[in-house]
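Action item from last week, closing it out:
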Amino acid sequence: MTTPRILLALPLLFGLAGMAGAQPQTTPAPAPASAGSIPTLEAVTVSGVQPGPGLWKVTRDGHTLLILGSLSPLPQNMTWKSDEIDDALAHSSELILPPKVEIKPNVGFFGKLALLPSLIGVRNAPDGATLKDTVPADVYARWLTVKARYIGDDRSVERYRPIFAVVELYKNAVKKTGLGKAGVITRTVVAIATKYNVKQTPVQYTLMVDDPRKAVKEFKRSTLDDLSCFTLSVDNIDAQLADMTRRGNAWATGDIAALRDDRTAKQRTACLDAVTDGGVAQRIGLTDIPKAVRTAWLAVVDTAMAHDTQAVAIVPIEDLLGDDGYLTALQAKGYKVEAPDDGD
């Protein structure tokens, strides 16, 4: 699993299209770990030139879509051998870019400026509470252990809501695993498409928030049912890091079977519920975003497949696979889907 993507929904929501970026945040450097305090992970990140995964082949009526499943983070010392995607783009007329979500306040420029002060402290727990106040003592003791290992002596995180503390924990922990390359796959593919003058088609879903100031104020006063997410994240951090490394290695070496083996469903569900079950998230439509984004992507694919002999798409691997994945949705629409490892 990547640094939990679903956890980023809250910062995205209450940052409201980057406005939170007007308040620069600095992350203190992690304190040096004592000898032997960082466990040896079972998986070792691969390095050197690696092939990456093969391409999924989607066909209908003589038209072909080749899909590259992307993953983040990836091994830092890995170089992706992109010959297959290079050849695919050399014979394609369109590149469908990864789906993006934008959450914007439905107010003018001055309304956005007026909203900025209300964003200060949005990550913090209500009423000045700290993690020690909001999580059980035994869980908090385990938190202090992993915090010392991966974050160091950063007191500001103690004032965060549990789910935001988890985001900070994973962000720092990933750096210690030999993982960390983000966005390199898309940048590489875009550069190749540009080289061949291939049309690049964005897929973007925009959620407009009618009363962002009210949403932020509601969120600051509200509580989140994020204890389960926090506890699972704290207790499983070392196993999760090993799993991230395993999946990074699997992507690098083209091991599709290992990429299908997702062991993080319970934790992801707990964190997703913490994000989407709150009244603020439900009121503004945050719970509808995954379905809306998939619908938007499928519409772009339908258009491309109607006029392109061959096109290429990039989709995060976790969105591609599974019962609710994009590949299943394509099959439901009558497309034939062939996996890279079909026939192996």
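Closing note: The first strand starts at residue 48 and ends at 50.
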